[in-house]
């Protein structure tokens, strides 16, 4: 078994597992951090970004396109359509992928890069919420980019990256970055996805059985178990033990795995999500009291549902019942509507509301009471009429490089009464704000992420008792955001192996196939007559043909040849007809090889120059110099190496079989 690491970001994983001749892709996360190196895409031309000074190379021989690199407050930015970091392509041929298992909607944004234009013809599996909410994420991303097209594409900067100012001179392999796919590519890619439910066992070409297990992280999120005969592999990605709106994590199904691959731990391990939620509400109230408005850059699903619920309660408690909340996204209406019809994927408390009946999420009543107003864009019909300040605005994109958030940062950035609150840990907030500097708006960083922290992950690992643990190398050292906290790592497991990996590596996993399942033909099963060889132990011989098809092993009855059928007719046995396998003379060898008897038989057969070499306590080597032959005898096997002499090998085999017990 091999694991190919196609991603260097554990929060956006993409790995390929090679096992039993199959190539299984685990997630296809898209790293979006690369967009921070580009100038924002405003909905209308921005004087601020147009007036930024151009950066010019000191080497007169190198000529960049006019305005290709812009400078702002000591940082350089590419003036072009943003580019993204897809999974590593050179490590594996995507056309060889047999199946893709998606754990949650945040880990499927690179799917069009993998399935379209690569020759991919496999199957993609995901739960229904993962597929539908993943579609919202992809549609929003594509619409944001296409809403503000760039006239030119910057290319030359990648050729002189080492000469550029920071942070561009430190980016990793920008030549591998790619522009975003089209909406047509998204639709074709998602058409390949087959929806599945929790605990549904899926057969993969007869070789493996994969099952999605609730992970507790977000709507429809799942861990996966991969079972083959007696071996079990668990893939844990984006899990949570906290009590939020999704269905709780199912730990029982993950226990006692031979191999556990763990990724997708929290990107903000140094903070508590409940404390951050409290700090967010406090800062919102302070800003509103001072007459300012609040901008919260967000994704179209996920934590934003909890923010609606928490903030609406805080606003009512603090007497701000008339303060409106605006949710602006190309998929805002679809996201709000869809979240309220997913009862089976929710926590028990949310499910119970459905049977009252009541909406599981409060944002439905907030919309009815006009406390939460949603629009596709700021130029949508009715927005200018409804919009008033002070207010709280939720909109994308959290990177602040595209989407309606760009407009609000420019609109409110120079006013210290307003506040921008970052809740998504995907993007460092200082880098996100860099091209807008100088700014007077108040900035608050409250990363809210419910995925496992290191303490919870270590506790979970102890309870699961895996044979081997496989983790990204990042998890063996404190994160860059808190390098002094040595407890923010995965702890060693006594007497267990931990294998770490990083992007671009191919590692071998120590999983050996112990046994395989064989299906016995019903006719043969009826003919079995067990015999007791010792108290409590019965055995029976079985003679048949082993058929292997689609990785399924079937033991079938022997079919007689024409000659054997003719011989059977001549003999005409009396009594009831017997199965063909009982008419054929068959010997069954068993037991330990008698070395002394073998030496005697070989001598009687003319092998006079026989040499005996004693290896370990359980291994003996017999050398026949004149025949250029070696016979290696150990406790578990006997090997004959005779230089291509087939007749000699068969002769030695027959002599060996005479030296073991048989019946």
UniProtKB/TrEMBL annotation:
Keyword Cytoplasm: yes
Alphabetical keyword list: Cytoplasm, Nucleus
GO cellular component: cytoplasm; integrator complex
Pfam families with a match to the protein in the record: Beta-Casp, IntS9_C, Lactamase_B_6
Domain of life of the source: Eukaryota
Subcellular location: Cytoplasm; Nucleus
Domain Beta-Casp: 304-430
Gene Ontology BP, a term: snRNA 3'-end processing
Principal place of residence: cytoplasm
Nucleus in keyword set: yes
SUPFAM superfamilies: Metallo-hydrolase/oxidoreductase
Family (UniProt): Belongs to the metallo-beta-lactamase superfamily. RNA-metabolizing metallo-beta-lactamase-like family. INTS9 subfamily.
Protein name: Beta-Casp domain-containing protein
Organism of this sequence: Anopheles culicifacies
Source lineage: Eukaryota, Metazoa, Ecdysozoa, Arthropoda, Hexapoda
């Amino acid at each position: 078994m091999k694991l190919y690491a196609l991603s260097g970001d554990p929060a956006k994983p993409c790995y390929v597992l090679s096992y039993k001749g199959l190539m299984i892709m685990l997630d296809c996360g898209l790293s979006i951090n690369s967009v921070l190196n580009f100038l924002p895409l405003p909905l209308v031309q921005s004087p601020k970004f147009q007036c930024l000074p151009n950066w010019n190379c000191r080497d007169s021989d190198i000529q960049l396109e006019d305005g290709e690199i812009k400078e702002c407050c000591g940082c350089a930015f590419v003036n072009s359509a943003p580019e993204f970091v897809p999974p590593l392509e050179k490590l594996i041929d995507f056309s060889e992928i047999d199946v893709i298992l998606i754990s949650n909607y945040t880990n499927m944004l690179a799917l069009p890069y993998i399935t379209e234009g690569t020759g991919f013809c496999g199957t993609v599996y995901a739960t229904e919420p993962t597929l539908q909410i993943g579609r919202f994420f992809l549609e929003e991303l594509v619409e944001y980019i296409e809403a503000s097209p760039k006239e030119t594409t910057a290319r030359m900067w990648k050729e002189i990256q080492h000469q550029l100012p920071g942070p561009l001179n430190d980016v990793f392999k920008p030549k591998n970055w790619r522009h975003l796919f089209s909406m047509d590519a998204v639709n074709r890619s998602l058409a390949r996805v087959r929806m599945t439910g929790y605990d549904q066992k899926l057969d993969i070409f007869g070789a493996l059985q994969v099952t999605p297990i609730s992970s507790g992280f977000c709507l429809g999120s799942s861990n996966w178990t991969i079972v083959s005969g007696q071996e079990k592999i668990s893939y844990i990605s984006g899990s949570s033990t906290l009590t939020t709106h999704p269905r709780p994590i199912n730990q029982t199904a993950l226990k006692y795995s031979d191999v556990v691959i763990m990724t997708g731990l929290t990107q903000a391990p140094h903070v508590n999500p409940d404390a951050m939620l409290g700090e967010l509400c406090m800062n919102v109230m302070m800003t509103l009291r001072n007459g300012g408005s609040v901008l919260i850059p967000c994704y179209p699903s996920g934590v934003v549902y909890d923010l609606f619920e928490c903030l609406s309660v805080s606003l009512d408690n603090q007497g701000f019942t008339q303060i409106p909340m605006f949710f602006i996204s190309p998929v805002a209406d679809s996201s709000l509507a869809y979240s309220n019809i997913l009862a089976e994927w929710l926590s028990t408390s949310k499910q119970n509301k459905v049977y009252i009946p009541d909406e599981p999420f409060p944002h439905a009543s907030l919309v009815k009471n006009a406390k939460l107003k949603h629009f596709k864009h700021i130029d949508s019909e009715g927005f200018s009429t409804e919009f008033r300040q002070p207010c709280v605005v939720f909109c994308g994109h959290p990177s602040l490089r595209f989407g309606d958030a760009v407009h609000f940062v420019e609109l409110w950035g120079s006013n210290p009464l307003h506040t921008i609150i970052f809740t998504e840990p995907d993007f460092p907030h200082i880098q996100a704000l860099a091209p807008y500097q100088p700014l007077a708006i108040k900035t608050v960083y409250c990363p809210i992420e419910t995925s496992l922290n290191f303490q919870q992950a270590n506790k979970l690992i102890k309870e699961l008792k895996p044979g081997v643990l496989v983790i990204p190398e990042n998890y063996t050292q404190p994160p860059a955001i808190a390098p002094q906290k040595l407890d923010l790592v995965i702890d060693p497991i006594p007497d267990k192996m931990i294998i770490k990996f990083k992007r671009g590596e191919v590692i071998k996993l120590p999983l050996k196939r112990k046994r395989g399942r064989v299906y016995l033909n019903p006719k043969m099963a009826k003919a079995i007559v067990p015999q007791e060889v010792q108290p409590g132990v019965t055995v029976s011989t079985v003679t048949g043909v082993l058929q292997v098809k689609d990785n399924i092993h079937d033991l079938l009855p022997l079919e007689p040849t024409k000659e054997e059928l003719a011989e059977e007719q001549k003999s005409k046995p009396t009594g009831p007809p017997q199965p063909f396998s009982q008419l054929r003379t068959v010997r069954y060898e068993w037991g330990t090889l008698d070395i002394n008897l073998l030496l005697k038989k070989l001598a009687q057969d003319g092998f006079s120059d026989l040499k005996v070499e004693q290896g370990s306590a359980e291994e003996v080597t017999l050398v026949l110099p004149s025949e250029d032959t070696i016979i290696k005898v150990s406790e578990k096997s006997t090997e004959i190496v005779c230089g291509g002499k087939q007749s000699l090998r068969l002769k030695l085999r027959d002599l060996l079989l005479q030296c073991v017990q048989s019946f």
